[in-house]
Design brief:
Structural class: mainly alpha
Strand content: under 5%
Largest sheet: 2 strands, antiparallel
Distance between the termini: 55 Å
Number of strands: 2
Order of helices and strands: HHHHHHHEEHHHHHHHHHH
Shape: globular
Radius of gyration: 22 Å
Length: about 400
C-alpha cells in the first residue's frame, strides 16, 4: 500500500484507470499536472529540459503544429492531450534518471498486481454476477450482460474494451515472468492472467504473446550458457504435451474459431476498409504530409464515410492515425523515441531495461490493431516506459563520465 502512495509511476497508472471509470472529467490531467509541478519544485524538470534542449525543441515544434496550428478539435483539448504525451515521456525520463532499480521494479510489479486484480474483478463481476462496467460520457454504471450466446462475450474488466484489457494482460505476463522471484506467485499469477487473456478473445493479444514467446525461445537457444540440444530435448515433449492437452480440452477449437471468423467478422472488414480510406485521404492532402492534419483529424475524417459500421470514427490502426494527425514529423519522432529506447536497453546488461523495452514493444505492436493513443492506460505505459529506458541510459552515461577513464599505472 505504501508503494501505491509513493511510487509516481503507479499513481499515473491509477489516474489513467480512474479516467476511464471516474465521473470526474479530466482527473488524469489533474494528477499528471501535479506530478509535473512536483518536478518543477524539485528543480529536476528545469535541469532535464536544459540538458536536452534540442529534442525538447523538436518535440515542442511537433506539438505546436499538431495541436495548435492545425487543430481539428478545440485548441485547449488538442494542446492538453498532446502535451500529456510529452510530459509522460518527460516524467518517465526523470524517474529513470533519478530512481533506482528497486523503484522501477516495484512500479512494474505493481502494474502486474493491478492487472491480476483486474482479472479477478472481471471473473467475479462479468462471469459470476453477469454484470459489466460501462462508461457513458462522464459517468460509469453497471449493466447486465444480455448477450444471447455467453460464449461470444469478451472480458474487459475496468479497462473499457477487451483489446485494451488483453494488451495490459500481455504486459503483465512479461513482467510476471521476468521480475517475479517467487516461483509459487509466478505460477499462480500466470494461470490467472492466461485464463483471463483467453477470455478476452483478443486475437491481437494472442498473436503478440505467441510472438514474444518465440523470440524468447530463439534468444534462449542462442545463449551459449544453455545447451541447444538439451533445451530442445526438454521443450519438445513439453510442447507436445501442451498441444495434446489443448486439443483434448477444446481450446484449439476455441482459439481457432476466433481466427476462423475473419472472413465474416465485421470488425475485420471495418478495420481493413478504414485503413484503405485513411491512406487515400492522407495521400490526397500532400500539403499536410509533413505536419499532419492535426489532433483528432482522423476521427473527423472517418465520420465522413461508412465502411461497415455507421458512425464509427476510429481508424483502428494507431500508426496510420498517428501519420494522418501528426504527419511525417510526428511518426519519425515516435520512431526515434522507440529506437533510442531500444538501443539504450540492449546496451544495458540489466534485465530490468530489457523488460521496459519489451513493454514498450507490446504497446507498439498493439498500435497495428487499434488506436491506442485514445486510451490513457496503454498510452501512459507506452510513453512512460520509453522515458524510463532513456532516463536510465542517461544516468548510466552520467555515472560513466563522472567516474572517468580507468588509468593503468605502469
Amino acid at each position: 500500500m505504501l508503494e501505491l502512495l509513493t511510487n509516481e509511476f503507479t499513481i499515473l497508472i491509477f489516474a489513467a484507470i480512474l479516467s476511464v471509470i471516474s465521473p470526474v472529467k479530466g482527473l488524469f490531467f489533474i494528477v499528471l499536472g501535479l506530478l509535473v509541478f512536483k518536478e518543477v519544485l524539485s528543480g529536476r524538470l528545469y535541469k532535464v529540459l536544459l540538458d536536452n534542449a534540442i529534442p525538447v525543441a523538436v518535440s515542442g515544434a511537433i506539438i505546436f503544429f499538431s495541436a495548435i496550428a492545425f487543430a481539428s478539435r478545440s485548441m485547449d483539448e488538442s494542446l492538453l492531450t498532446v502535451c500529456s504525451y510529452f510530459f509522460c515521456i518527460l516524467l518517465g525520463f526523470i524517474y529513470g534518471k533519478e530512481k533506482n532499480d528497486g523503484w522501477v521494479g516495484a512500479a512494474l510489479l505493481m502494474l502486474r498486481n493491478i492487472t491480476v486484480f483486474a482479472c479477478l474483478f472481471s471473473f467475479v463481476l462479468e462471469i459470476v454476477l453477469g454484470q459489466r462496467l460501462v462508461t457513458n460520457g462522464s459517468f460509469s454504471f453497471l449493466q447486465t450482460i444480455t448477450i444471447d450466446n455467453p460464449s461470444l462475450y469478451r472480458l474487459r474488466s475496468f479497462f473499457g474494451h477487451a483489446i485494451v484489457f488483453g494488451q495490459i494482460i500481455v504486459i503483465a505476463v512479461v513482467i510476471n515472468f521476468k521480475l517475479e522471484t517467487s516461483k509459487m506467485k509466478r505460477l499462480l499469477y500466470s494461470v490467472i492472467l492466461l485464463v483471463a487473456l483467453l477470455l478476452t478473445k483478443s486475437r491481437s493479444a494472442w498473436i503478440i504473446l505467441t510472438a514474444l514467446a518465440l523470440v524468447y525461445l530463439v534468444f534462449r537457444l542462442k545463449n551459449p550458457e544453455y545447451s541447444k540440444w538439451n533445451l530442445i530435448a526438454l521443450l519438445t515433449p513439453a510442447v507436445l504435451l501442451l498441444v495434446f492437452m489443448l486439443y483434448k480440452s477444446g481450446l484449439f477449437n476455441f482459439v481457432g474459431s476466433r481466427f476462423g471468423e475473419l472472413e465474416t467478422d465485421v470488425s475485420y472488414s471495418q478495420r481493413s476498409g478504414a485503413i484503405s480510406y485513411i491512406i487515400h485521404s492522407f495521400l490526397s492532402r500532400p500539403l499536410f504530409w509533413l505536419t499532419g492534419n492535426g489532433y483528432g483529424s482522423s476521427r473527423i475524417t472517418m465520420l465522413d464515410t461508412t465502411v461497415e459500421i455507421s458512425g464509427f470514427s476510429t481508424v483502428d490502426n494507431g500508426f496510420l492515425a498517428m501519420l494522418y494527425e501528426y504527419g511525417f514529423l510526428g511518426i519519425c519522432g515516435f520512431a526515434s523515441l522507440l529506437i533510442s529506447a531500444g538501443i539504450s536497453s540492449f546496451k544495458s546488461d540489466c534485465e530490468l531495461d530489457q523488460v521496459l523495452f519489451s513493454v514498450s514493444c507490446i504497446c507498439c505492436a498493439e498500435l497495428m490493431f487499434y488506436c491506442e493513443l485514445g486510451w490513457w492506460v496503454p498510452t501512459v505505459i507506452l510513453f512512460a516506459t520509453c522515458g524510463l529506458a532513456l532516463g536510465r541510459a542517461s544516468a548510466r552515461h552520467s555515472n560513466l563520465c563522472e567516474s572517468g577513464p580507468n588509468l593503468i599505472s605502469e
